[in-house]
Each structure stands twice: as structure tokens, then as C-alpha cells.
From TrEMBL:
Residues spanning the membrane: none
Record-linked InterPro entries: Rhodanese-like_dom (IPR001763), Rhodanese-like_dom_sf (IPR036873), Thiosulfate_ST/Rhodanese-like (IPR052367)
PANTHER family reported in the protein's UniProt record: RHODANESE-LIKE DOMAIN-CONTAINING PROTEIN 15, CHLOROPLASTIC
SUPFAM superfamilies the record matches: Periplasmic binding protein-like II (SSF53850), Rhodanese/Cell cycle control phosphatase (SSF52821)
UniProt-recorded name of the protein: Rhodanese domain-containing protein
Residue intervals of the Rhodanese domain: 274-377
Length: 378
């Protein structure tokens, strides 16, 4: 990992704690004044153990490190924190207030669908801006892979300027940045196509769950005090609310909200359709189907090898089990919820293969169970 490392000498024999501070060069002011060596000294004084601080702007590597639990503590942007929280870490505090991001396009581009074969300008690859761009497009049925060109730069403001000058067709930026920028424009230079839900602002502090409880309590007290502000990190507020991080973590991984040619249904609607004769089709694996399923569903596993993207290459997947179904009977495809792409791909492919009536239970088995509907198992 391309990082800068600062170790603080210790007189004790206690094990060294590793801290990763990841900074986004396209995030403008974040951590410009942070004193990394002093952060290590401050934490060592509080925790009573040597602390090694590493800092990085290479988010692909930092994200990978959260999955392998390489650091005891992370102070990172929210999309990195979301990954850590899904892999052995717990939430301690956050320095910023919730904020939203917007997908902005040149006037005359009225929808995400019209961005296909257009030019998109984004901040650094794997930065929060780029992460939000992929997620916002994905939620709306678009894809970065459908763009004619995607240009990544190390500054967020360049995207708005590029759109203003007509060099690029769209960009993603913080809503607050867009609001300030639009005030300076004479005439409408860009339009908001999509606005995200609120996401955590600033930087987030997470800690490995394996850290002893007494050390976690000391770290929580440190975060709630004046030290983060004094050290240039910003005022940190204690929090245990993971909802916004779960939203961030799902962006780019969740299936779109709609699918042309397919009717998306709720679990309640699916149950009624089954009573009317529609066939529930479970496209998960046989093992998952045997363990727990919707009563009356048939197994038709969709063997997925293509990318989890709206522009997936169906020729890479095995659709044969679904292809064997009656194409004249209404079908409802379901799998393991909104983050499971098998039912999305099966629904889209079924329409292309001539199925007459296709329904998509996007929420899948989890939504069915949330309503306390009966399940079956072998």
C-alpha cells in the first residue's frame, strides 16, 4: 500500500497499535491541517501503547485493508468506514454533519438514460465522489460502463467547470458545493438529475472489535474530547448509528430501483400474484433453496459469472434452468434481496428471451420474511 508511516517510540513492551488515516485529495479541505505525528503521540498518551500512524490517498488499497483487518483503528471517509463496519469494526465517532451528493448534467440532458455514450468527469477513482457517482447511476439504472468517456481528476471542483465549459456532460459533487457554484453562474449552466440520501460528512473513526474493551473506552473518550479538533481532524461527535453507513456501503452494489419491461413488485403483491397463478422462481443456489425458500417457489438457479452491473454480459451466465420454464405463464423472480443481482439479471434476460409477463421481487426472501410470511425448507 502506498502510504506514509509515522511511528512513535515507546518505552513499554505493549503491542503496537496501527492507525490508518486516509485522506481524499479531491475532498478539498479535509485534513489539510492535520498533524499526523501529533495524532500518534496523543493516542499513545491516552491508550498507553505505542501507535503507528499510516496515511494514504490510495483508496483501493485502503478499502482492501478493511476487509483483511490490517489496522486497529481507521480515521477515514464514510465509504471506507462503511466497508470497515461490514468487516470486524465498530463505529466510534464522526467529524462532519450529514450531507448529500448530486449528479449534475448539462442543460438538455434530462435523465440518466441520456448519459449513455456521454462524457463524465469525476474526482479521483475510488474517492467518495467517484463512489457516489457509481452508486447514483446504478440506483437509477445507469452505469459508468455505458459512458463514452469517464475522466478522473484529483480535485472535485474541476467537474463543475468541465460541465460549464461543455467539455464534459456530467459530474458528481457535494450538494453544498453545487449550491455555492450555481450562485456564481449567469444562466443555468447545469441541472441536478439525482440527489443522494444523506451520507456521513467529514471523517469517521472506527475501531477493530478485537481491541480490548478498556482501550476502546479510552479511544471513545479521546474522540469525544478536544484532541481531534486540536490536531486538525475536526470536532468529532460520538455516534453508533450505522444507518447512513449501510446506505453508503450498498451504493454501487445494490440493484437498480427499476427495470424496463419488468414490473417490480412487493412481497405482498407477489403473494397475491401467486394466488392468481403466477410462478415464483427462486434463482439462488440449490443449497440456499433447500435451507429456506418461499412456499410454492420453483428452483431455477441463475449461474452468475458476469459483472454486477446494469450492462452485464448475459452470454457469460448460465440461464438454462430459467430458459426451461413456461414462457407463457407469468413469472416472479426472486433471490436474496436488493443486493442480489441474480433476480435482476434473470428478469432482464427473461424479457429478452420472450417471457410474456415478468415480475421482479427486488426485496426477495428477506422482504418476504420481514412481513412474517411463511417459509419452507427441506
Amino acid at each position: 500500500m502506498a502510504t506514509a508511516s509515522l511511528a512513535v517510540a515507546a518505552t513499554s513492551a505493549a503491542a503496537e497499535l496501527k492507525l490508518m488515516v486516509a485522506t481524499d485529495p479531491s475532498g478539498s479541505r479535509e485534513l489539510l491541517t492535520a498533524r499526523y505525528h501529533d495524532i500518534a503521540i496523543s493516542l499513545q498518551a491516552v491508550l498507553g501503547q505505542p501507535v503507528r500512524v499510516e496515511r494514504s490517498t490510495v483508496f483501493a488499497e485502503v478499502l482492501r485493508s478493511t476487509r483483511t483487518a490490517e489496522f486497529d483503528i481507521y480515521i477515514v471517509p464514510p465509504h471506507v468506514a462503511a466497508s470497515a463496519l461490514a468487516h470486524k469494526y465498530e463505529l466510534v465517532g464522526v467529524t462532519g454533519k450529514p450531507e448529500t451528493f448530486v449528479l449534475v448534467a448539462r442543460p438538455g440532458i434530462g435523465s440518466v438514460a441520456q448519459l449513455a455514450q456521454r462524457k463524465i468527469h469525476l474526482a479521483q477513482q475510488d474517492s467518495l465522489y467517484a463512489y457516489m457517482a457509481k452508486g447514483l447511476l446504478n440506483e437509477s439504472g445507469g452505469s459508468l460502463t455505458a459512458a463514452k468517456e469517464v475522466r478522473y481528476e484529483r480535485t472535485s471542483g474541476a467537474g463543475l467547470v468541465a460541465v460549464q465549459l461543455g467539455l464534459f456532460d456530467a459530474t458528481v459533487t457535494r450538494k453544498a458545493e453545487y449550491d455555492e457554484w450555481i450562485k456564481t453562474q449567469n444562466g443555468n449552466k447545469a441541472e441536478v438529475l439525482i440527489e443522494s440520501k444523506p451520507v456521513p460528512g467529514g471523517l469517521t473513526l472506527v475501531v477493530n472489535k478485537s481491541m480490548p474493551e478498556n482501550l476502546r473506552q479510552k479511544l471513545t473518550a479521546w474522540a469525544a474530547g478536544n484532541a481531534p479538533m486540536d490536531l486538525g481532524l475536526g470536532r468529532m461527535q460520538a455516534t453508533s448509528d450505522k444507518a447512513m453507513y449501510q446506505y453508503v456501503g450498498g451504493l454501487g452494489h445494490f440493484t437498480p430501483l427499476q427495470l424496463p419491461g419488468v414490473t417490480r413488485v412487493t412481497a405482498q403483491q407477489a403473494a397475491e400474484l401467486m394466488r392468481q397463478g403466477a410462478q415464483m422462481v427462486d434463482v439462488r443456489s440449490e443449497k440456499e433453496f433447500n435451507a429456506r425458500r418461499i412456499p410454492g417457489a420453483v428452483l431455477a438457479s441463475y449461474i452468475e459469472k458476469s459483472a454486477k452491473d446494469t450492462t452485464f454480459n448475459a452470454s457469460l451466465d448460465d440461464f438454462s434452468a430459467v430458459d426451461a420454464l413456461d414462457k407463457n405463464r407469468p413469472v416472479i423472480f426472486a433471490c436474496n434481496g436488493a443486493e442480489c443481482w441474480k433476480s435482476y439479471k434473470a428478469s432482464k434476460t427473461a424479457v429478452a428471451r420472450g417471457f410474456k409477463t415478468v415480475y421482479w421481487l427486488r426485496g426477495g426472501l428477506p422482504e418476504w420474511e420481514e412481513l412474517n410470511f411463511q417459509t419452507a425448507r427441506n
